[in-house]
Amino acid sequence: MDHTIKKTDRPPYGLLAVLMIGAFIAFLNNTLLNIALPSIMTDLDVDATTVQWLTTGFMLVNGILIPTTAFLIQKYSVRRLFLVAMGLFATGTIIAGIAHAFPVLLTARMVQASGSAIMMPLLMNVMLVSFPIEKRGAAMGVFGLILMFAPAIGPTLSGWIIEHYDWRMLFHFVTPIAIVVLLIGFFLLKDKKDKVDIRLDLFSLLLSSVGFGGLLYGFSSAGSKGWDSPQVYGTLIVGISSLVWFILRQLKQERPMLNFRIFKYPMFSLSSSITMVVNMALFSGMLLIPIYVQTIRGISPVDAGLMMLPGALLMAVMSPITGRLFDKFGGRILAIVGLIITTVTTYYFSQLTMDTTYTNLVILNSVRSLGMSMVLMPVSTNGLNQLPARYYPHGTAMNNTLNQVSGAIGTALLVTVMSTRTETHATELMKNAAGQSLPEMQQQIAMRAMLEGINDAFFVATFIAGVALILAFFIKRAKPAEDTISGKQAESKNLANLVEN
Prior knowledge:
This protein has helices at 13-44, 48-51, 53-65, 69-75, 78-97, 102-130, 136-164, 169-188, 202-225, 230-252, 266-296, 301-329, 331-349, 358-373, 376-385, 392-432, 439-472, 489-500. By secondary structure, the protein is an all-alpha fold. One of its GO terms (molecular function) is transmembrane transporter activity.
């Protein structure tokens, strides 16, 4: 029997549940690893620059593969893509769990990334074609609840595992769950797809890989190597040049690998811009708060994870509520209120001191998380709602790619601000402390300079959030655009295949 995905009164909840569990496991694994990096450095005898490739490499593979998911979703069935994606992720997890050399661990992480890169766009596309526009907010809210729960429990769970077991236990913990989900998908997913006559343009794939890969690597390296490093500006120049060539090539093709014509829809373009800007501000908290808490205040990794837990849980709980509010009121009011909260709390984070209490940090981070929860999913869903159904794979792939790029840009920008301002403040403080060269005094100056550098980075993040707030006032409730292609049977057939399969 041919089980298909159609817009009916009863969406395929079983299929969605399997996909969501798979996405949750992939997302959880990534949040688990961050706290384990120091332990991996010690055990495998690598420095901070090298171990960071476990994160950078994962992000690079995502950035290279995600643009291809628009083609893959149109070409292959949900079942086939899910099994390949989950199989790659499980294989990478098993290899990582037995890795005793850094190159093996890095290879395993890249295999994991190749699976997770397919998972998220696939799930979002299935949700778009399974729910009518008036119910998408609630559906995306449940989706957000499940995915936000991963970063909520990830740091705390990882801290506990690292304190009691070897870091490889993080992968051993995920492996049986990934295998079970793979088996469930194998037996339960039965959808089929008619043969679709589209082929992957290999030269476009090469340009996309070099373009997005170059941007991600360049921005990711800028924080540690500096903007004047040939390795940084060289890869950025190559990446930007390749990306421009890639975009021009896609605009000339009748069936592009990644369709940039989706940016002619104003609400999608606006939502993409807001999401990119918000992601840059979001990374300020993910990056700077742990540095402040652990390096300057000396709070343990477990307590640092517990400090972030209420905010992450609040985002998870708010996600379905925000989804229902989106269905009722639209994205504009939610985005404006959420970005006001985000901007104000980000500003307060720029006023940190050596004596800021743990309780104040928990409350401030929680309120900031509340603001973020009202922005990301509603804005993204509103933009996707304006696209015709044939553009859903391209819209989800574009959103996920831009999230990767904006995260790298935000991280590079804020690390640069923090580093340069820390040096400036250290120079000024040393002048004021002339003649007091005791080691204790120098350590105090270094900590004070870093604190001021973090505050300056948060201040820049406040302006970034302010830009998103201004853009949010231009949001309008999106309605599906008319599919203007006519007289092209091949396109009509692809649309039917997409909606039905």
